Structures are given as C-alpha cells and as structure tokens.
Amino acid sequence: MGNKSKLFKALADKNRLRILKMLEVRPLCVCEIREILNLANSTVSQHLAILRKSGFIYEIKDNKWVNYYLNKRSTDDVVYALLMIIQSKSFDDDVYRKDAEQVHLVDRNILCRL
Amino acid sequence: MGNKSKLFKALADKNRLRILKMLEVRPLCVCEIREILNLANSTVSQHLAILRKSGFIYEIKDNKWVNYYLNKRSTDDVVYALLMIIQSKSFDDDVYRKDAEQVHLVDRNILCRL
DNA sequence: CCTTCATTTCGCCATATACCGAAATGTCAA
DNA sequence: TTGACATTTCGGTATATGGCGAAATGAAGG
Fold it and tell me: Where are the domains of chain A?
C-alpha cells in the first residue's frame, strides 16, 4: 500500500545497501557498522532508521547495544522480494565482499567508544 | 557490477514508477506520458532517460514518435527481478489503476502539440 | 531546402537528502 | 543516584534531485 517509491528510496543509497549486505552476514550494532563504513555514528543511526521504517530490518536491544537484523521473514510481499534480490548471487560487488570480511573481524568490545 | 544503488535510484521516484506501470499496459510516447502525469515534456524525457540508462526500458523510433517499451526480457538478473516485482500483483496502488485506464483512453494523434 | 512537430538538452530554481558534531536520551552497573 | 557508554535526535551545510521553460536537435513531408 501507500507509497511504493519509499521502499526504493530506502534502497537507493550505496551505504544503506552495504548495511543490508553486512546484516546478511550477522546482526550488527551501530558502532560496528560505523567502523566498517567509516561514517559518524549519527549518520549510521539515520540510515538504520530509514531501513527500519521501510521494513527491511528490525532491532533488538541487548544489554547496552542495539542489534540490527535483516528482516528476512517480512510479511510484506514487496519488501520480501526486494530482500531476496539483495541476497541473491547476482547482487554482488567487490565492496560487499570486503565489507563481509570486515564483519567477521570487527569486535564491538574493542571498537565502541565514540 | 558497477553501482547497484543506481538501479534503486531509478525506481525511487513516484513518477518513474507510474511510467513503468503505464508501460506495462502498452508502449507509450513522451507526449502520452506527459498528458497522464501532467508534467512538462522535458521532465518526462528526463525520467525516461534515467529509466533507459538503468535498463528498465528501451526505445524504438516510429515515424515522428519515439515509443518507449518496458524491457521485460532484460538480461541483467537484477533488473529482470526488479521488473518482475513491479509487475507483480502485490505491487499495486490506486494511482497505478487510474493511470492504466488513462493509457487506454489517450490518443497521441489528438494530444500531441507542445 | 524549409517547415513542422516530437523529443532532448540546457540553465535555472526549489526541495530533498546525506553528512557531521553537539546535545539529548536510555540503559546498565557501581 | 551517579557515571559510563551506545544510540538517537537536533541544527546546520553541501550536494543531489525533480521540476520548469526556452533553445537545440532530429526526422518527415512539402
């Protein structure tokens, strides 16, 4: 329903696509994403809010961190289909591969201080 | 390859989505689209250029008109999958339905003068 | 070659978006 | 309650985008 272009707007940003591809590897907190994308915490937080409002991700608070998850079981057909595309083999890029490696390396207990 | 966000940017506009949904009904020229969207010819032309450069549509010149077609047989997996979503039953809206009606009614021989 | 007419390109303006740092918020543990 | 720390919200700025009208382009016919 509503405004379909809003869904595509959420995906129409290089950094937000990188975030979704990283969440494909595992759930992440803001500071882990900040470290990999090399952006300000506030900027990452904004991107996550946009992806969450569109239904592509959801959050679960855990201790002092907020973990963000890829919403693989979205009940919105369009969101679900879009996430399938983004997770498909064809949706690939050097940047995404490098980010995925970083996701395995980052440790929130070391890097998280503003 | 290249910049995946560019594909989503092309779809991240209300009027460009309306154009794709109208082309689902039948090929159209610039002035028919202008009439339905109520935009300037130059604006429609820009939107079509963006959709064409991303591979969602193609053009075939016919007499004095340029006809734009939905590129249903795109060889780019991602473009193909995105067009499938846009053509799916779930991708619906009152605006798209009204536009589709208009597409049946417009006659380029009557309305085309700048 | 000249005219006509659909379309595209250009220059400009208003709004939307991405980004940052600073301040506010929220949560946990001392 | 207070302090520490992850996150979000706020205010501001630079760039990107969508819109228009005018001028340029291109194709068809006289």
Answer: 4-105
Task: Output residues with Cβ under 7 Å from nucleic strand D.
Answer: A 29-31, 41-42, 44-46, 48-49, 59, 64-66, 112-114; B 9, 12-16, 38-43, 46-47, 50, 61, 63-64
Q: Identify which of A54, A45, A46 has the alpha carbon closest to the alpha carbon of residue A5.
A: A54
pLDDT per position as a tens digit, B69-102: 999 999 999 999 999 999 999 999 999 999 999 9
Contacts of A100 (CB under 8 A, 6+ apart): A21, A22, A24, A25
Q: Inform me whether the pLDDT recorded for B36 exceeds 70.
A: yes
Secondary structure (3-state) at A70? strand
Is A93 within 8 Å of B1 when comparing Cβ atoms? yes
Instruction: Select the CATH number that applies to the domain covering B4-106 from these four: 3.30.1330.90, 3.40.50.1000, 3.40.50.300, 1.10.10.10.
Output: 1.10.10.10
- Asked if residue A101 lies in contact with residue B9, where contact means CB atoms within 8 angstroms, the answer is no
Distance (Å, rounded) from C-alpha B4 to C-alpha A14?
8
Spatial contact of B30 and B107, defined as CB atoms under 8 Å apart: no
Architecture of domain A4-105: Orthogonal Bundle (1.10)
Cβ separation of B9 and A14 shorter than 8 Å?
no
